[in-house]
Amino acid sequence: MALIARWCLNALALMLVAYLYSGVQVTGIQAALIAALVLGLVNALIRPVLILLTLPVTLLTLGLFIFIINALLFWLVAEMVPGFKVSGFMAALLGSLMFSVITMATSFLIPDGKKK
Asked: Using CA atoms, how far apart are residues 67 and 25, in angstroms rounded to an integer?
């Protein structure tokens, strides 16, 4: 149940990013739900491999290269999902930052199921 709630909150976060920033566009709730699902899968499967492969660059830039990886993955999802558009790399960078901040803020609304 928490997984579905987190998925819906991520879709709403994508819609909020699109509302606040014109470089990111989401045509509707269906596109937001699909984009949130694909973004979650990409972040779970592809992101760890990319971080491992770019570890020297990430260490050299003191971790700032992870922002570039996040932006590229955000842009990749926008290219894959119809109804979810990002106007360029800088829009992907700013959109991914906004999405990360919003999802981090809303993650406190859903308990993770771990007992303390």
From this structure: 20
